[in-house]
Write a structure and sequence with these properties.
This protein is an alpha+beta fold. The chain has two domains: about 5-55, no CATH class; about 65-175, Transcription Regulator spoIIAA (2-Layer Sandwich). Helix content is about 35%, strand content about 15%. The chain has six helices and nine strands; from the N terminus they run αβαββββββαβαβαα. The chain has helices at about 5-10, 25-35, 110-115, 125-140, 155-175, 180-185; strands spanning about 15-20, 45-50, 55, 80-85, 90, 95, 100, 120-125, 145-150. The chain has a three-stranded antiparallel beta sheet with strand order 1-2-3. Strand 4 and strand 5 form a beta hairpin. Helix 4 (about 125-140) runs parallel beside helix 5. The chain is globular. The site of iron/sulfur cluster has 8 residues, from helix 3.
Amino acid sequence: MTLSETILIAEPAFDFAILGEGEYACLELLVELEKTARDFSTIKGLVWKRGNHIVHNEIREPVPDLDTLPFPARDFLDTAQRDPVDGNIVESIRVVTSRGCIGTCTFCCVNLHNKTLKGKRWRGRSPMHVVDELEMLVREYGVRVFNFADSSFEDPGRRGKQRAREICEEIIRRGLPLSPRSTCAAKR
Ligand code: SF4
């Protein structure tokens, strides 16, 4: 995160960097770029060039409720390489169900991120919201294998384990046909 200034100085192709969670900062930046009289100083999380100076705006607070964010755009899956062996499924789609971690490992960028943003260390999407996204990917794109790309899927403590259980139970309740590799293995 602290490399933003170095990158902006060293690389003239970059005019902006966003520290922390970028969804709303990026949106506000695009709105500002559309204007003729631009003021980047109020966009929290933005690092930008003003003449020969690098300006660090105020840090942006993390999104408190991840369920309020839309699902990531998955348009690229229409043309993604599919595996003919498993019925043309899209392999190993990444889904993020939480952000942050309650660990304090000194070598880890997630821990540094937690300290810098000074927000809640871990936030998780609700089980319903997660499984809604999985179901959309199953029904619209034929995805069968998911890779939960969270920093710490099972946080925090007992509450996190309960959330993981509720995600699993909701997948079963909806009858989502996941993990066809194990299904194929069972058929053989
Ligand atoms: S994400 Fe892993 S390595 Fe990083 S602070 Fe959490 S437990 Fe430690």
